[in-house]
Design goal:
Elements: H1 7-12, H2 18-38, H3 44-61, H4 71-86, H5 100-103, H6 120-140, H7 143-155, H8 159-166, H9 170-189, H10 206-222, H11 233-252, H12 261-270
Length: 278
Amino acid sequence: MAAPSDPIQDDITRIADPGEATARLAHVYAADLYRLAIRFCGSRDEAEDLVQEVFLRVFRGWDGFRGDSHVKTWLYTIAARACQRMHRRRSGEPADIGSLDDLLPFGEPRIAMIPSEGDGILSAQIEREARERVEREIALLPDDFRVPMVLKEIVGFTVPEVAGILGLEEGTVRSRVHRARLKLRAAVDRVLPRTSHDVPPPAYPEQTCLDLLNAKQEALDRGVPFDGSVICERCQSVFASLDLTQEVCRDLAGDELPDGLRERLMERIAGGLGDSVA
């Protein structure tokens, strides 16, 4: 059976004029690219510069695009490289993400609890604090983890698509997303209320808990439900905070373009993207 037609791909790949193609791509993807850029830049001005840099490179490289990949994959490949160029590792920024043992609460006597939906004020406060923690933690992730994490959890690409964009093996992308997700989860965990009593040790050998965690992560990767009805209290806590972390990341995907950026982009595209930011 033939693959379903993609209207955006079919439309854009028929456009020969670089200016027209760039304007069309900016109309469709500028907001998504800004959401990516703001996670990598130290200021909104730098994020705007990055978005404009991406579309400058699209304009200059359009004649070389042959439609072998989806245009969105091609566009985000340019964007990921621009992010990595514009965001060099800062002095003191960690080169790695820490050990798995540091990211999981297997040894803690009291564990986090997710408030029930009926606790409206508490839930709203926790969501605000969780978002602040996640935004701060994303900024601190090493680039090798931040780029795939943002592409997967905020922009919404699948693991295979992220692998194609970054030129990595799917297993490498999956591993980095899982570790980054656990790092963000640990940050979210710190804003959650704790149990009022010490909870029992893990109900299974630690490897069983890790196997269950890997199954939970793979379910999050695929966007499918995970049956948590027969897991211990500690695993339930970890999995609930993982779900909250992913919800926060999806909420971050709702950031809007700053006022006037789309208009400035369109004006520059119409003018052949003069006064390059490159």
